[in-house]
Task: structure prediction
Amino acid sequence: MKLCRFGPIGQERPGLIDADGILRDLSGHIRDIDAYILAPEELARLAIIETSALPAIFENVRYGVPWTGISKYVGIGLNFADHAREAGLQAPDEPIIFLKAPNAICGPNDDTVIPPGSTRLDWEVELGIVIGTKANNIPKSDAARHIAGYCLLNDISERTFQLQSSQWDKGKGCDTFGPIGPWLVTADEIENPGDLGMWLDVNGVRMQNSRTSQMIFDVHTLVSYVSRFMTLLPGDVIATGTPAGVGMGQKPEPKWLLPGDVVELSIDGLGMQQQKITQR
Result:
């Protein structure tokens, strides 16, 4: 299933995308798509609904974050081999963990607002893992059953803020720095999350073009590893890292996002995002 939430900010309704790509309203069956709905038995209940009987939505609508109840947005740094080479850094021996503040989370096509003092705003297309059941210190072999699905992420980063100390959170957690969606795609629809095409354009120019096969630590390794240090709860999301082509890595000089720029990005099977860069 491709689950989503649609409507104005604070008034989103639950929905899904049917086999023909049509948005269907789920409001008659559930009040919202929240952490409770991500449990395997609840997803199974939704999967048997006759989608053709659901009201179709044809007007242009805003997509919100596909689910609510995100207690943690966990980022993984330097997890793509091509990105490590681009940065001139050794691949890490263990996953690098940082946290993205909940206030950063926004809809997939909402504007990205440049924070005060920003001088080096960057982009990062990423695969997101959505947790469906509580995971605490689990083995890699058990990780799959804790995953509800996957989503498209843009881990927007302010590099000046990020690199002012060894702690990255300040440059990752600004308002609107965490677009999620447009859909949460359940795990049964993503046959191999370790080999998905992914790309990102800035003003129509392809900047990132890679595959998740470049990941140093795979999806199941990451879920297991993160669960050793913090209990993962239903609704939590793990951003699995970005490939080569970020603004900081452009040659001969870095390229930064400016007001009026438009960022578009996609991962196979997970939909597409578009953000306009705006100034306060």
Q: What stands out?
A: The two ends are 37 Å apart (CA to CA). The chain has a mean pLDDT of 96. The first strand starts at residue 2 and ends at 6. The chain has two domains: 2-57, 73-279.
